[in-house]
Specification:
Layout lengths: L1 E4 L8 E3 L7 E8 L5 E5 L4 E4 L4 E4 L2
Antiparallel strand pairs: 1-6, 2-3, 2-6, 3-4, 4-5
Length: 59
């Protein structure tokens, strides 16, 4: 597991949202007007992050 800034996420990254869950597969990443990113996961969940927020991915 490694961490990267949320604005570096790309399709098919596997993000660990909670330490007790399986990774979520990134479907799309779009910029938000506030300077963050909106990440849509293949599960249908959507999460907004600050661009510089560190997220854990399986790498």
């Amino acid at each position: 597991m490694i961490t990267i800034p949320a604005n570096c996420l790309a399709r098919n990254n596997r993000v660990i949202i909670s330490s007790d869950e399986m990774p979520y597969l990134v479907d799309t990443v779009t910029d938000t007007p506030s300077g963050g990113v909106r990440v849509a996961y293949s599960s249908g969940d959507t999460v907004e992050y600050k661009a510089s927020e560190e997220v854990a991915i399986v790498g």
